[in-house]
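go over this:
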Amino acid sequence: MSRNEQEVLSQNINRICHGTEIIGSINASGDMRIDGVLEGNLMSKGRVVIGESGRIKGDLICKNVDIWGSFEGKITASESTNFKAMAVVIGEIKSSKLYIEAGAKFNGSCTMPAEQQPTKLS
């Protein structure tokens, strides 16, 4: 993929607006914002934002995720997972970094991939 194609993909933001319900799976090459309801799996090569009115019930695979709304299922984020103060999250999280603001509700488990250990000097 050329640099120009990468720039265009990173500027594309797919959006599910408040009042919209989707039942099924979504596969997105760009960023995604959910302000409606998704019952199904979401796979994105970019950032996923679940807005205050957003709700996902299913599995999520992405690079980064910011949650203001609610999520129930499994999250696999290759870089970071961020629960904002209003977030309600139930499920399993696998992420390199996890940020939880005061007020967020999280009921589940989290695993973080082990980083390489520094080499010992002899």
